Amino acid sequence: MRSLIGKLAWSNIRKRKSATITLFLLIMIAVLLLNIGLTVSLKLNSFQQEKISKLNTPDITAYFPVNEHVKEYESLVESYPYTEAWENESALLLPDVKINYGGNNTAIAFLILNMDSQRSMGLFNTTSRLETEDQSTIYLPYIFHGGSGYNLGDTFSFEYDNNKFTYTIGGFTEEPLFGTLTNGALKIFFNDEGYKQLEARLGKEVQFNFLSVQLNERAKEVKLEQKLSEQIFGSGTSSSFLVMRTDVGLEGNRVFVNILAAILIVFALIMVVISLIVIRFQIFGNIEDNLTNIGVLKANGYTSRQIISSFLLQFVSVSIMASIPGSLISVLVMPLVGNMISSSVGLLWPTTFEVFSALYSLLIVTVLILFVAYLSSRKIRRITPIAALQSGLLTHNFKKNHFPLASTSFNLQFALSLKSLFRQTKQNFMIVLIVAGLTFSSIFCSILNFNFKGDTSAVLDLVGLERTNLQLDLKKTDHAPGIIAEVEAMSEVQKISILEGRVASTDDSSFMLRVSDDYAKLETQTVYKGRQPIYDNEIAISGVIAKMKNKSIGDEIPVTFNGVTQNYLVTGLSQQINQLGMVATITEDGMRKLQPNYSVQSINVYLKEGEDPQAFIQKLEERFPGQWNVTNILDMLESTLSTFTAAVSSMTAVITAVTIIVVSLILYLVIKTLIMKRKREFGILKGIGYTTFNLMTQITFSLFPVIVVGVVLGSLAGYFYSDSAFVLLLSSLGIYNVQLAVNLPQVLLLCAVILVVAYVVSMLVARRIRKVSVYDMIMD
């Protein structure tokens, strides 16, 4: 029995070689994308954890300026009951370094450490390294190699405080937290001699401490983070500092990678659905074309179960055969994907073959194909031998003739195209679904690409970063009165705003508490429901906090800072990816209820159109010497987005290319099947005077309106519902409302490209009709 089923399956494959090849390619592409997406999604978290264990990354990391309070911070960590180990080492913090990254001049912060210092946490580890080194050797995070193209032995230069520093790249380091552009400063290493030379050259102003803490109970790290942040704030530190939990830093690094992986998986599943639609179309077409043969098989003793089993074997075999090269190709593509991942997480991604992901992809695709093939072939059970041999009612078309040729007012060629169009409604519906799904995917990625490369305001709103030119931090707490007003009055300044952060808590849940004098001045608005606080008893909390604490607008929520607790009225719900969505906002007066001696230490400066930030910084220093630490926020935002732009652009190109390939394959399959089915009809039409070009045009225009409908539906869905799709991808991060910018000409151009390619492919495939001749019809 098995051999009989196998022979039937092989016979079906041989009779439909082109259809089998088309299905093979579709499944191979689907498995390729699905395997990559699953590999990244399933492996990313464990990969980061392995690196943390290897490098002994601490549970809490902090850097802060060297001052008389350092012993107090160390005493706090030492006395914390869950501290297992801690160490504090010297570091240099350069808050506004100008570098060339990815071909662009950008600004970033450097956290410089001595590689020769004794440390047991956050170990110095290189992916590659020069054999020789001296005081001019610098060790950079791996993203400079993977994301910017630097190599060992290259010259690397940066500017700080109007001075240029040039070094030789001696190696690239793996760093789970400070190895990317998303977690503040980049961790840079020098040898002992080089570190001391740089320290002497830069002076005491950049001297910081780098504190690492390992806990014996991970759940207690939130409390220590809060206490340490409060103590640093309370000591009057005005310089930049950071206290970060490892889990927060890791999540921030992998957010973007997870988004891309999710998009790949969804697109791969769309490809699987397309394959399932094609299988259904093939089975129905096979049953219809071979109705008499099925009747003969049943009359000769074959059961419905055997015939159905042959279909199942046929498509499962194609699925398995296509999955193997799909998985193998993913191994070849994975180094490119791994390079993008490494640029995002700061760790060298291994390019090994993941057997589990490959088997999982194969299982998903095969089970779905088996299920759809079974449902589609059940129709065979209702076919009796006598009905199949008689054909008759089973194959006759009782549908209304909407375009009778005898009375139509249309051109005959056009009327024939319309008759063909309305005669194959199920096939047309299949094509519309496929083209609409693919067009939606392409439009969605195109819109996403535009928001990373063009209008970045929506992305920055989601991240929660303020779009300002410069951030000015006072170097001393006892600053001259009126200094902020003097900065605002400078001729180059359009406006200033205040937006500072403090680590606070509610019911032992730590979050970032942002403070501003007027939220209406901010360019980045994060509240999606309600409003920002205006009075001193009001607060806006993120959707993540609201869901965690079961709070809504109108409720009160307790906020604790530095041992003081106050209740605030919730006036709005906000959203942002930054700080994993754990953010709330209050007014300056509201902050003074928690910290009576609160004073502004940081301002955002927005320059007028056309003003040069560097010229303004120089003028600022001349007017207020030694008063401000200046950070070029706009450059830092652009550099952060630049690490993701290449990945989004690549994914957009891949999905657009796959869309064009799949549309071409589907048209090839449909048109070839159409010519085979209507070979006799086309021969008759040639006999009465129709040329090959006339018939090619007729075939093309019987399908082209369907393609147009699919492209229109897919583009409209992409235009109006890309926001909703993006919200679904980010819902786990507390994002509930997204308004992506849309470049309409770009969307229209993409639609036009799909339509032009579809038309050209249709005409090229329809050229097969030239082989149909009247002579062959007579001889047959």
TrEMBL record:
Q: Name one GO molecular function term.
A: transmembrane transporter activity
Q: Which domain of life is it from?
A: Bacteria
The entry's localization annotation reads: Cell membrane
- Give the stretches traversing the membrane: 21-42, 255-279, 311-337, 357-375, 429-452, 644-671, 692-720, 740-761
- Which InterPro entries has this protein been placed in? ABC3_permease_C, Macrolide_Exporter_MacB
Residue ranges of domain ABC3 transporter permease C-terminal in the record: 265-385, 654-773
- One Pfam annotation reads FtsX
Chief subcellular location equals membrane
Cellular compartments per GO CC: plasma membrane
Entry membrane topology: Multi-pass membrane protein
Entry keywords, A to Z: Cell membrane, Membrane, Transmembrane, Transmembrane helix
The UniProt entry, under PANTHER family, shows: ABC TRANSPORTER PERMEASE YTRF (PTHR30572:SF4), MEMBRANE COMPONENT OF TRANSPORTER-RELATED (PTHR30572)
Q: Say which family it is in.
A: Belongs to the ABC-4 integral membrane protein family.
Designated name of the protein: ABC3 transporter permease C-terminal domain-containing protein
Classification of source organism: Bacteria, Bacillati, Bacillota, Bacilli, Bacillales
